[in-house]
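Good morning,

Attaching, inline, the backbone tokens for the sequence recovery test we're adding to the shared suite. The designed sequence is right after.
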């Protein structure tokens, strides 16, 4: 039998191929794998090797419905035949399912595919994760049920050469798999090792044991060896690790260490070594060698993706934090279990008083630290910013103004990922205001919503102010930092009730502007009238906002002015 490559793998591509080789031997037992890679030659070559799986390969889509997956009634055929005819689904026959765009999988489909794996019907699933951002990942419920997680994002095309065992060797390994034996205490050792790397659940140790058996079958061995177990934990545990194991404390010196060894203990040790059990330190080193260099950064980004979208580090308001952000000088405080102690600052505060404290406590020669010496670390973080555009869509010039607003919003959205901004659009015309674009960072969604913006009619300025107020208030409640940009000539002629009348419309607009100014939000009034008049300046005064007359502003000037005026 042709043996595979050496067990110690140095590159992501080699580890992915080794994982695929094991999956070809035991596809149902290992469940499948997640491959994170953008479309390109590297992923294309990896996909070209997937037909080597001993199961029919079926390509599915994130929009797969229940009838295609589990089968269902064929109405047309049943009516034509006069009796019920049922179409089979993918779940009825064991196959390998290939799911591109796995990061877009709906929760309902992820639950059904997870159920398909749990039933043990012999299926295998390969998820192609094409996420461009760290937050875009395959569903965790499915990743947990698949043995291997391979990241090919940094693999170069020149290094992506297919090196897999021959099909005859795969078939021979599958026939030999049932005869492979594992030591009884290997599973215990794998469970303890998973706990040291912060891996929860029982699936990872079981996958590691099955992977070791598959690798042994590839090598034609009847028992798993140390090399097989070491390589299995590298493939299974390294992508799942959430912490680096702490160093074990050195044991206390044994006063009887100079005594001659006990013959009975010597025999037991020799028997243990003969069984081939690997010391825990060797397995820890094997997994640690494959851990990504930015493990902590990846974990921080993944936890931020699971949390609130306004997790911080944006361009919004400053706020105090106790975990991350720009460091601030330490301050005295009480230990509450949340804030972290600044050890250096605490020692610096306690050092000048040590002589006096030791004189008062002659029997206490060590360092004496009192609660008043405790210094807590502080950070300054920024919440995500919500930039609200309130656009006057009334009158004959509405179409040109809306086009400029659309271009400005698209320009700001292009910078949204860099500044973690969210952009929203409120248009007011006729007798009321309408939210055309809810808060979003998606440029695709924004362009879709902005393709056909309405225009014409009266100027319900008060309704636009109220809609902007409601959106800003909701943004504050979810942890965002709202900022508002008004594009209008300030000449309202429709009141809050939707009836014409400039006097009442002005009074309602002033009332809503005063209410909105109470939120103390950064705001700017961009006067886009051909001849700027006092109305927009008065609106800016009511809002306590910056006033920018831009009668001939294009999209770039509007976006630049809004960003500069609203950035604190």
């Amino acid at each position: 039998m042709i043996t595979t490559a050496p067990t110690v793998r140095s590159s992501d591509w080699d580890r992915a191929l080794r994982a695929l080789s094991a999956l070809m031997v035991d596809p149902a037992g290992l469940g499948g794998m997640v491959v994170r890679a953008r479309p390109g030659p590297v992923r294309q070559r990896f996909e070209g090797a997937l037909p080597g799986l001993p199961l029919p390969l079926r390509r599915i889509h994130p929009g797969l419905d229940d009838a295609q997956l589990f089968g269902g009634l064929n109405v047309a055929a049943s009516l034509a035949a006069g009796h019920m005819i049922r179409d089979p689904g993918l779940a009825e026959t064991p196959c390998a399912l290939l799911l591109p765009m796995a990061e877009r999988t709906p929760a309902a489909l992820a639950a059904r595919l997870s159920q398909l794996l749990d039933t043990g019907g012999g299926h295998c699933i390969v998820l192609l994760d094409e996420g461009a951002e760290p937050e875009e990942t395959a569903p965790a419920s499915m990743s947990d049920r698949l043995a291997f997680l391979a990241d090919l994002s940094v693999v170069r095309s020149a290094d992506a050469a297919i090196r897999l065992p021959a099909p005859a060797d795969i078939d021979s390994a599958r026939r030999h798999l049932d005869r492979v034996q594992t030591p009884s205490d290997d599973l215990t050792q794998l469970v303890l090792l998973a706990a040291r790397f912060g891996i929860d659940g029982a699936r990872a140790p079981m996958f590691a044991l099955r992977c070791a058996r598959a690798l042994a079958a590839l090598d034609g061995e009847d028992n798993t060896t140390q090399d097989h177990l070491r390589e299995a934990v590298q493939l299974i545990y390294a992508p799942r690790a959430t912490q680096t194991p702490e160093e074990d404390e050195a044991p206390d010196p044994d006063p009887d260490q100079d005594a001659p060894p006990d013959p009975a203990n010597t025999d037991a040790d020799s028997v243990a070594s003969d069984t081939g059990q690997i010391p825990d330190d060797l397995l820890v080193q094997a997994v640690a060698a494959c851990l990504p260099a930015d493990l902590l950064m990846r974990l921080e980004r993944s936890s931020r993706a699971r949390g609130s979208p306004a997790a911080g580090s944006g361009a919004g308001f400053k706020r105090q934090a106790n975990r991350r952000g720009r460091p601030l000088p330490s301050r005295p405080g009480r230990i509450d279990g949340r804030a972290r102690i600044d050890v250096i600052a605490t020692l610096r505060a306690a050092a000048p008083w040590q002589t006096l404290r030791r004189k008062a406590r002659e029997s206490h020669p060590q360092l004496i630290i009192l609660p008043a010496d405790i210094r807590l670390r502080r950070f300054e973080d920024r919440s995500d910013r919500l930039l609200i555009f309130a656009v006057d869509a009334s009158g004959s010039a509405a179409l040109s103004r809306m086009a400029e607003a659309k271009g400005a919003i698209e320009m700001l959205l292009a910078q949204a990922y860099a500044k973690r901004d969210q952009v929203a659009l409120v248009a007011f015309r006729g007798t009321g205001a309408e939210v055309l674009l809810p808060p979003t960072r998606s440029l695709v969604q924004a362009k879709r919503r902005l393709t056909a913006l309405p225009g014409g009619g009266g100027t319900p300025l008060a309704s636009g102010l109220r809609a902007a107020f409601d959106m800003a208030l909701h943004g504050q409640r979810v942890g965002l930092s709202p900022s508002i940009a008004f594009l209008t000539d300030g000449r309202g002629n429709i009141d809050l009730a939707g009836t014409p009348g400039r006097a009442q419309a002005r009074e309602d607009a002033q009332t809503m502007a005063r209410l909105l100014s109470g939120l103390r939000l950064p705001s700017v009034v961009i006067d886009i009238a051909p001849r700027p008049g006092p109305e927009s300046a008065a609106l800016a005064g009511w809002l306590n906002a910056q006033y920018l007359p831009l009668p001939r502003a294009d999209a770039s000037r509007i976006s630049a002015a809004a960003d500069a005026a609203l950035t604190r």
